[in-house]
Structures are given as C-alpha cells and as structure tokens.
Amino acid sequence: MAAAIGAGCGITGMTTYSLGVLINPLSDAFGWSRTEVSAAKTFITLGFVLTAPFIGYVADKFGVRRIAMLSLLGLSMAMLAMTQLNGNILAFYAALMALAFAGCATTPLVWTRGVATWFEKKRGLALGLTLTGSGLAGVIAPAALSALIKAYDWRAAFIGMAIAALLALIPVYFFFFENGRQANQTKATRAVALNSGFTVPEAFRSRRFWQFGFAFMLIGGVVSALVVHLVPLLTDAGMTRDLAVKMASALGVSVILGRVTTGYLVDRFHPPFVAATFLSAPIIGCLLLSGDPGSTWLVILAAMTVGIAAGSEVDLVPYLAARYFGLKSYGKIYGWIFVFFYAGVGIGPLFLGRMYDLYGSYDVALDVAIPTLALGVLAIATLGKPPQFNDHSSNAAG
C-alpha cells in the first residue's frame, strides 16, 4: 500500500499523467508549440537516465526507505518551483530537469526494490499491485488537475501535485520497509534469495540484457508517446476536450487492469508470452486512431488499449528484471534497464509532437509507431525461459 501510494504521487505517477492535461494550457499561456511542450517528457526522462544507475547502486547498498522519503520531499519543493515559470522555454526545460533530479528516487525502481524482497511465488501480482498506484494517479490526476486549471490556472496543477507528494510521505514513513522476514522463511533462506543472480558485469555479457533493453526502449517510446498525447489524439479524433480529459482519467482504470492482470498471469504462464500479448494491444489503438474511428466507442477502445499496455509495461520491467537477473544486483541492473526504457520514453512524445507540427495530424507518427511497437514485442516474446537462481552463485547462462 505504501509503495503504491508513493508510486502514484511520485515522478512517474501523477507527473506523467499530468503532461497531457498541461499541453494545451501551457501552449496557450506561453505560445509554445506542441513539440516544445511535448519535449517536457524528454527532459524529465533525461533526468531519470542520468540518475537511474546511481539510484540503483544506492538502493542495493543502503536500502530504499530513506531515499524515497527524501525524494518525495524534494519532488514537492520542485513542483512548487514550477509555478514560477515565465514563458522562457529554456527555463522550462531546466526546471523539468531539476524536477527529475529531485524525484529520481520516486520511480518504480525504488518501490519495486522494496516490495520484491518480500515475495517470490507471487512476486508478479505483488509488483502489479504496487504499481497500481500510478494507475490510480491516472484515474484521479487528469480530472483533478483539469478542474484546478479551470478554477485557477496551470500553476494550480503544480501546487496540487506538490501537496500530493507531501501527503505520500505519511504512509511511506510508517509502512514502507524492505527485507522483512516472512513467517515461512528463515533468515538464511532469505539471505540466499537476496544474494542469488547476476552481477552487473555478468548481465552486460548476457544476450538477454541487451535484448530486454532494446525491446523496452521501443515499447516505452511508443506507449509513452500515446499516453502523453492522449488528450490531443482524442480531440483530433472528434472528441470534445472535456470528454477527452474524462477518457484520460478512464485510462487509469485500464492501467490498473493491465497491471494486476499481467502480474497475476506472469506468475502462472511463460512471462514473455504474457508480456507480448498485453504490450501488442496499442497496435489496435494506433490503427483505430490513424484512420477515422467513426464511433466514440472505437475511440474509447483505442484509449483502453493504450492504458492496458501502459499498465503492463511498467509492471513487466521490474518483474522480468528480477526473474531473468535475480535479486543480487537487482537495483543496479534495473537501473541500467531503466536507462533503455526511459530513453524511449523521452524520445517518443517528442517525436509525436514533432510529427503533428510538421503534418498537422498524428497519422504519420501513428503509422511509424505500429511497426516500432511490433519489433519491441517480438524481442520480448523471444527472450526464452528464465534462469533458475537457487544459491549464492549467479547463473550467467544466456
């Protein structure tokens, strides 16, 4: 519960789902193009990429509770600082980088590191439940922030997110712990589990590490672009802005569905096949949105496919990292995978915004997104069977 709340109020939760709501207000306030505003995701992501390996190292060495609390506090302060934007686009980008640095320990890397140490057989479901927090943020944030913007202006949205990050400190302080001992496990057994798996050099020599990183770079880029641009995509498809904002909130429901369902199924079936099934869903959405859907229900279906994949991808990265590389250097290895994933996340929204500015619609960008996503899904589907970790030595096969 505490990790879910932290994930929802952290930099990859409410902040991510706010960008689509803020694109038009910021464009109207400062005269910025969609490309310029969409670059917000790129600069936030650059902060993730620069800090992820360091955060992974700190999490493995010192634990995650303290750094999560400090980062939530820093994120709140950085959100308040965003209210001082004055129309200088370079200052906007610098502020976004500062926001990412401040919230760098509120990403799934930290929350899943704490939760993964408690679970083995039901780890997929546990991580899925953890990351429903950002799905709930997707339900609440668009409507809540849109209401604040309507009542006041865009600054109120940042103030609202700052307050949410501060409030998240309460459950994290009281309930977020790692390395606890389950009743049916001895301390020695837990020590074996926590010290089994790949080291970072062994992971770098593994074909699966690079295949994994490449796949999620492509998938993350496409899905993130669709999430950030969802409101403009839906309005361009014929929805009113108010209905599109409501759909952005409904997206969070499909995110939660994707996370919990994926988490449940990967504990029972071959994880890469489960991943490929869920992550290919936005191909249908892109096909619908790139043409003339002709029906509000088809537009809603397109949005739901994006939400299902957005829920699955963030759940699958930590789960597959633990399954294929073990817990021995989980934070460090996940940190490097994070670099691949968020490189795609940073580029995708910028690409979609640029294509819109060039062609006056998203059709060309969606046509590129379909084969890009298919290639990433294929790379995941062919990962093969996860290795078994059962002692202190790492299993570096594959």
Task: Compile the SSE list and pairings.
Elements: H1 2-9, H2 14-30, H3 34-62, H4 65-81, H5 89-102, H6 108-116, H7 123-130, H8 132-151, H9 154-175, H10 187-194, H11 200-204, H12 207-228, H13 230-236, H14 241-266, H15 271-279, H16 281-290, H17 296-325, H18 330-359, H19 363-381
Helix pairs in contact: 1-6, 1-8, 1-9, 2-3, 2-8, 3-5, 3-18, 4-5, 4-9, 6-7, 6-17, 7-14, 7-17, 8-9, 8-14, 12-17, 12-18, 12-19, 13-14, 14-15, 14-17, 15-17, 15-19, 16-17, 16-19, 17-18, 18-19
Walk me through what this model shows:
The chain has 398 residues and is mainly α. The protein has a single domain (2-178, 186-381), classed as MFS general substrate transporter like domains (Growth Hormone, Chain: A, Up-down Bundle), CATH 1.20.1250.20. Helix content is 78%, strand content 0%. It is built from 19 helices and no strands. Helix 14 runs antiparallel to helix 15, helix 15 runs antiparallel to helix 17 (296-325) and helix 18 packs antiparallel against helix 19 (363-381).
Task: Give the helices and strands as they follow along the chain.
Answer: HHHHHHHHHHHHHHHHHHH
CATH fold name, please? Growth Hormone, Chain: A
Q: How does the overall form come out from the CA principal axes?
A: globular
Largest sheet: none
| CATH homologous superfamily label | MFS general substrate transporter like domains
Helix content class? over 70%
Beta-strand proportion: under 5%
DSSP summary, beta strand count: 0
Low-confidence stretches: 181-193, 391-398
Radius of gyration: 20 Å
**What number is the mean pLDDT?**
80
Class from secondary-structure proportions: mainly alpha
- From the 3D coordinates, which CATH architecture would you assign? Up-down Bundle
The total number of structural domains is 1
Q: How large is the count of helical segments?
A: 19
Distance between the termini: 35 Å
What is the CATH level 1 assignment? Mainly Alpha
